[in-house]
Amino acid sequence: MRRTWPAHVTLIAGALVMLAPFVWQLIVSLQTLSDSLRVPPVLVPSWRWENFADVFKTVPLGRQFLNTVVVTVAITAGQLLLCSLAAFAFARLRFPGRGAIFMVFLAVLMVPQELFLLPRYEIMQGLGWLNTLQALIAPGLFGAFGTFLLRQFFLTLPTELDEAARLDGANPLQIYWHVMLPLVKPGLLALGLLSVMWSWSSLLWPLVVNTDPEQMTLAAGLASLRGQFQTNFPILFAGSIVASLPVIVLFVIMQRQLIAGIAFTGTKG
């Protein structure tokens, strides 16, 4: 214990630094507008709980919450299905150019996502999907990172499983669904949790493709609370807390599975 106390002190200090913005967010969300603008800042909340109710009056937060749930569930389901299919093909099937195609997939991870904004917007405009939920869902249904993550899991499984399934007359899709997929549950959980967090907090694309408040997600709806000359920070921070709670609760419950799933991807190249 004596040898490890410096590490514990360092970790506790780091945790406090990480928690400081969340504590400040909670304090401001319970203050009046005048208190939130004071210099030096007021460190004691005014306990104005009405700010949380005022958020729902300022923006259609209930509708935006539902939009976020629909978008997150759809994107997560698409990521799990499509990425696992592609990962299974890259890891377990043999076909010409497999390595080269996979390198192209990995190259996509090196391209900044902002470069895809204009092409994606033009595609959505051509389809007539602007200000719709499908414009938020379609671009996120598949990803190179999810394919790479699940491919690492498939590579760890012994090849004897494939051979035994083929001897029993199973085709590749049956091997994928009945044999391989149940064995990569840690990877599916990790990818699912990451997809939920990314989809829930996505901001730039929802701001670009949707301008109707009724079709916005929570992140975009809260961003609209920032005024040109003045921002009601207590209401904005109260809305941010409401929007963050579901993801925080999910992460606290599933953090072990997430960490284990990500760590396991490095066990085989």
Fill in the keyword field for this structure.
269 residues; mainly alpha; cell membrane; transmembrane helix; MetI-like
Q: Strand tally, please?
A: 0
Query: What's the order of the H and E elements?
Result: HHHHHHHHHHHHHH
What's the CATH class of the largest domain, please?
Mainly Alpha
Please name the fourth-level CATH homologous superfamily of the largest domain: MetI-like
Low-confidence stretches: none
In percent terms, what proportion of residues is strand?
under 5%
Structural class: mainly alpha
CATH architecture of the largest domain: Orthogonal Bundle
Q: What is the averaged pLDDT score?
A: 89
Shape: globular
Task: Describe the protein.
70% of the residues lie in helices and 0% in strands. With 269 residues, it is mainly α. It folds into two domains: 1-48, no CATH class; 58-232 and 239-267, MetI-like (MetI-like fold, Orthogonal Bundle), CATH 1.10.3720. α3 (50-58) packs across α14 (233-264) and α11 (185-201) packs antiparallel against α14 (233-264). The longest helix is centred in the N-terminal third of the chain and has 32 residues, at 61-92.
